[in-house]
C-alpha cells in the first residue's frame, strides 16, 4: 500500500476494480482546509481518462510493474506488433494500449510496462521526443512572421503537427510525444 505522497507520473494503481496509470498529478495545499492531490488517471484496460482527487494521506493500492524494451515492427489495422530487444520474442498489442500511436515509426524502441502478477502488458511508454521527417507542408507565406505563425505539416508516420513557417518538406523535426507538438528542427 502506498499513500498520496508516493504519487508520481507513470505510477500504476488499482482503483475502482481496474488498473489505472497516473498521467498527470498536482499536489494542492490550499490556505484553508486539508491538502489534496488532483490526478488524471488513464485506464489501462479501456483507455478511458478520468480526473480524480485524493485527500492527503489517502492510501492507494499500487500495482507492481516491470518494464522491458521493445522495438516497434509494424501495424495491422488496430493491432501493433513489437519485438523484445533482448530475446526477440514478439507480442501484439491493441491501439488502445498506446498513448500516441500516430507518432511511432517502424524500428522505434519503446518501453512496455508489464504487470508482474500475470505478465500482461499494461501500456506502451514512448520516448520523450521522436525525430520524424516532414512529407508534406505548404510553403510559408512571406511577411507573415509578426506573430508565431504556424502551418500544418504531415509527417512520415501520417501524423499532422503544426510547425513554424520556415519548415519545408524533407526537413526532420523533433516532436514531443506527450502532446504531439513541434519542439525544434532536428540537427543532422
TrEMBL record:
Pathway: Protein biosynthesis; polypeptide chain elongation. It is found in: Cytoplasm. The keyword GTP-binding does not apply. GO terms for cellular component: cytosol. Coiled coil: none annotated. One of its GO terms (biological process) is peptide biosynthetic process. Belongs to the elongation factor P family. Involved in peptide bond synthesis. Stimulates efficient translation and peptide-bond synthesis on native or reconstituted 70S ribosomes in vitro. Probably functions indirectly by altering the affinity of the ribosome for aminoacyl-tRNA, thus increasing their reactivity as acceptors for peptidyl transferase. This is Elongation factor P. It comes from Robiginitalea myxolifaciens. The lineage of its organism: Bacteria, Pseudomonadati, Bacteroidota, Flavobacteriia, Flavobacteriales.
Amino acid at each position: 500500500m502506498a499513500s498520496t505522497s508516493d504519487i508520481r507520473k507513470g505510477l500504476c494503481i488499482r482503483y475502482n476494480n481496474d488498473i489505472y496509470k497516473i498521467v498527470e498529478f498536482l499536489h494542492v495545499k490550499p490556505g484553508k482546509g486539508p491538502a489534496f492531490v488532483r490526478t488524471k488517471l488513464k485506464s489501462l484496460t479501456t483507455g478511458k481518462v478520468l480526473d480524480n482527487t485524493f485527500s492527503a494521506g489517502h492510501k492507494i493500492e499500487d500495482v507492481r510493474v516491470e518494464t522491458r524494451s521493445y522495438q516497434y515492427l509494424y501495424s495491422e489495422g488496430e493491432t501493433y506488433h513489437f519485438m523484445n530487444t533482448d530475446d526477440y520474442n514478439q507480442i501484439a498489442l491493441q491501439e488502445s494500449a498506446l498513448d500516441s500511436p500516430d507518432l511511432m515509426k517502424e524500428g522505434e524502441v519503446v518501453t512496455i510496462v508489464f504487470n508482474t502478477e500475470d505478465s500482461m502488458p499494461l501500456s506502451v511508454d514512448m520516448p520523450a521526443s521522436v525525430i520524424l521527417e516532414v512529407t508534406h507542408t505548404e510553403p510559408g507565406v512571406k511577411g507573415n512572421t509578426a506573430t508565431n505563425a504556424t502551418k500544418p505539416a504531415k509527417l512520415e508516420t501520417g501524423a499532422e503537427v503544426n510547425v513554424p513557417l520556415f519548415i519545408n518538406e524533407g526537413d526532420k523535426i523533433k516532436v514531443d510525444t506527450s502532446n504531439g507538438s513541434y519542439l525544434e528542427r532536428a540537427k543532422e
